[in-house]
Task: inverse folding
């Protein structure tokens, strides 16, 4: 983490001109398929387009429409709920599991191998598996003999949202666990040894050494988690399709349904712009919280 | 599960002394609550996977008649035969093509760009770096409509290339970030000695930076490879023909068509995951340490 800055500052390093062209292929692709579409989506939000025919200017009509559209507010609200609750659920679990799997005990290594299995699965596969698993008659409830679990999980609005948050956690906790595991393993052992001499117990060590030392890991993981929560489209699309009713119709899904199902690309683009704006704002905010100098050393004085 | 915990507990007095292990993390007293929670989480992870695996081997009658978590009484591979008969080999090939087609160029371009960003100077490269960093926050979904429009205008709609091109672009920002971090850690003296030996930057790129950046390249390849292999949105929007379906899309259409035959649907889930699972079993250490190496920097 800290070595990066020192190397970059070294004198006599690198040459200008001839190196720049090495960045060109990546730049061209990125400009063409990420930056240009970004500008495009902004432009399209001021147009009328059905996805097939001609595109015509619509002025601010889409935007007036969007800001009086209850579906958009519903989607915005659901997206916020999923973002906040997912963060609250996933962060503590991933942190603890990351610390847990960073230990070198054999059984923990074995558990870690299995913990990471969901990383391999596609959102579509996970959604389909959970649809079967949540069946009140032929799924988990019947298998475990727990009638409490025999709910119409995907058929009742308040339960469906809960299921979506749970399945998202099931899918993404492993990834964040992996990030935290890496972070914990980089904490210098001398800190723990010193704490032990001072008589600090395991819980104290966790709160006074592990947690503060993981500051930047927490920011990285949270950024990925929060910005990522805008993009749970695949999972929700296959799991609930936004239903029942509109109870899981998050922003990304609202955009898809408006654009590709209702053929209203203009309003859909406006929703997309909102999505981009939220993503950029959140990323900037989290970087601010983390402090400007992200590569600053946490190990000062060691 | 319980037996392992008690066995550990019995061994506790012996390991009461401080032991320092390979990873250097101390192992003091046995941490029972952590162990218990660890096994509990395992159940959360494993039960769904177990359910999918056993159900995929059940007959329809077994699915309706047996306890859902019981092993199949009359295990059958018919579900798998049925899935394979639904053209899954083709979908597999499509997925492999878009994954390879995305990874090779995106890795090469990202590597060259990170080298330039770290080794070069000047406002241009700074701006490029800033642009890529900003790109990390652009969600793919948000720009799918203009991408759709562009792909139509380029007459690429309903082709594998339509999926590959945007995938390359969206793989670049994170790849550059991770690779650049690695190249920065290469001691400057090595670059200097390459230069004293009369090597051009181009030669330095391939002979020095590439081998030293291998862990980052593996990380990026795995991360982006999984993302493309499992990607759903681009194929959903940009293709239409059944013969161009990739695995996640095929899964979705399959479950739509065979929604009454859950064992067959779950067999398709297993079958699409199997190749990745084999890779995981073979290259787990590389895969996990690769992911961590990149992200914990």
Result:
């Amino acid at each position: 983490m800290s070595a990066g800055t020192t190397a970059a500052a070294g004198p006599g390093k690198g040459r200008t001109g001839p190196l720049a062209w090495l960045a060109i292929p990546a730049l061209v692709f990125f400009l063409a398929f990420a930056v240009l579409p970004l500008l495009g989506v902004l432009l399209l939000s001021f147009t009328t387009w059905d996805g097939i025919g001609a595109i015509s200017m619509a002025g601010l009509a889409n935007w007036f429409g969007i800001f009086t559209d209850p579906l958009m507010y519903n989607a915005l609200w659901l997206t916020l709920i999923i973002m906040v609750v997912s963060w609250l659920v996933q962060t503590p679990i991933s942190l603890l599991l990351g610390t847990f799997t960073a230990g070198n005990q054999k059984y923990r290594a074995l558990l870690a191998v299995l913990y990471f299995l969901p990383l391999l699965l596609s959102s579509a596969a996970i959604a389909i598996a959970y649809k079967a698993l949540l069946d009140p008659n032929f799924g988990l409830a019947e298998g475990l003999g727990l009638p409490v679990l025999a709910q119409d999980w995907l058929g009742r609005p308040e339960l469906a949202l809960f299921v979506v948050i749970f399945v998202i956690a099931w899918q993404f906790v492993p990834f964040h666990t992996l990030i935290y595991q890496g972070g914990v393993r980089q904490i210098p052992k001398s800190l723990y040894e010193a704490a032990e001499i001072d008589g600090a117990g395991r819980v104290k060590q966790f709160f006074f050494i592990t947690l503060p030392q993981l500051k930047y890991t927490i920011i990285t993981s949270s950024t990925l988690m929060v910005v990522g929560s805008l993009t749970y489209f695949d999972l929700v699309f296959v799991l609930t399709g936004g239903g029942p009713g509109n109870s899981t119709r998050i922003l990304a899904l609202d955009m898809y349904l408006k654009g590709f199902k209702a053929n209203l690309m203009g309003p859909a683009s406006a929703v997309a712009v909102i999505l981009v704006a939220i993503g950029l704002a959140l990323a900037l905010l989290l970087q601010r919280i983390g402090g400007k100098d992200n590569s600053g050393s946490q190990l000062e004085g060691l | 599960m319980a037996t392992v915990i008690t066995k550990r507990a019995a061994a506790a007095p012996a390991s009461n002394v401080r032991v320092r292990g390979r990873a250097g993390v101390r192992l003091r007293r046995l941490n029972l609550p952590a162990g218990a929670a660890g096994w509990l989480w395992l159940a959360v992870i494993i039960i769904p996977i177990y359910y999918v695996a056993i159900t995929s081997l059940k007959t329809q009658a077994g699915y309706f008649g047996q306890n859902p978590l019981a092993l199949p009484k009359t295990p059958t591979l018919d579900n798998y035969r049925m899935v394979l008969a639904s053209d899954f080999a083709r979908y597999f090939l499509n997925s492999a093509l878009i994954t390879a087609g995305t990874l090779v160029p995106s890795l090469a371009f990202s590597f060259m760009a990170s080298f330039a960003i770290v080794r070069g100077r000047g406002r241009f490269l700074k701006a490029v770096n800033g642009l890529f960093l900003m790109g990390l926050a652009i969600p793919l979904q948000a720009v799918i409509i203009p991408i759709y429009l562009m792909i139509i205008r380029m007459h690429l709609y309903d082709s594998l290339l339509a999926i590959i091109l945007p995938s390359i672009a969206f793989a670049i920002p994170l790849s550059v970030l991770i690779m650049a971090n690695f190249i920065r850690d290469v001691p400057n003296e090595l670059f200097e000695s390459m230069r004293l030996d009369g090597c051009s930057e181009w030669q330095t790129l391939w002979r020095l930076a590439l081998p030293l950046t291998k862990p980052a390249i593996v990380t990026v390849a795995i991360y982006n490879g999984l993302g493309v292999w499992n990607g759903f949105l681009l194929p959903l929007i940009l293709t239409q023909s059944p013969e161009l379906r990739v695995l996640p899309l095929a899964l979705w259409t399959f479950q739509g068509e065979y929604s009454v035959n859950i064992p067959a649907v779950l067999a398709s889930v297993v079958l699409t995951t199997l190749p990745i699972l084999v890779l995981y079993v073979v290259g787990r250490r590389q895969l996990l340490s690769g992911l961590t190496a990149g992200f914990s920097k």
